[in-house]
User: What shape does this take?
Amino acid sequence: MALNTHEIRLGDRKHAFRYPKAEEAMILSLLEGRDYPLAKTRLDGDSPVILDIGSNCGAAALYFKSHFPDARVICYEPSASTYKLLSANVGTIDGIETHPCGIWNQEGTHRLHHAPGGHSGSSTLLPWHGWPDDLGGEDITTKKLSNEIRRLELTSVDLLKVDAESAEPEILHEVLTNAPDVPIQNIFVEYHAIAVRKYLSEELRPKYDVHLCSVSSDRQGTLLFVLKNQSH
Assistant: This one.
């Protein structure tokens, strides 16, 4: 896999970030803030707790860390080869921790289906109808986010980013149902169908303000949900 290198400033130093050359457009869009515009979030304090579900090679983690140097960023990436690249990119950075597993609404061992073109950021637990069956895959460990929040002893989450290639609705439903007492202040979620965008918007609107952040195709984009002021 051919890799490119991009320098990211973290505090007073530059950090070399390596990513698959074939995914350059996606990576640069993320690093430039088009996918996850922090200006639209409601973040209090300089040391937010950030959960990065579907970390890929670490672009989002580094993007968040570059804006919040004192953040605690907790990454989850299930693919073995991608996790290796993630660890190389962020493993030495204080305040970023990585976990080699997936997040889903089921715990155990499940099949991660590799994506066309070998794109590390597009492997999925839920292949859509017509997904080629000769692309290979790997068995991964999945955990429920509600259980991880309890294990990590988190009393609140400042920012949750979910990019899990079609598993996003299941992940959000699970954590919001099974950990209702842990407020999640901001949620960035990538959707992979217009019907999913509509479903998520309708389900979360009672408690969250909804923002459409980006549209990368006629069926894919990024939503931001900001927890409403509960005192009003």
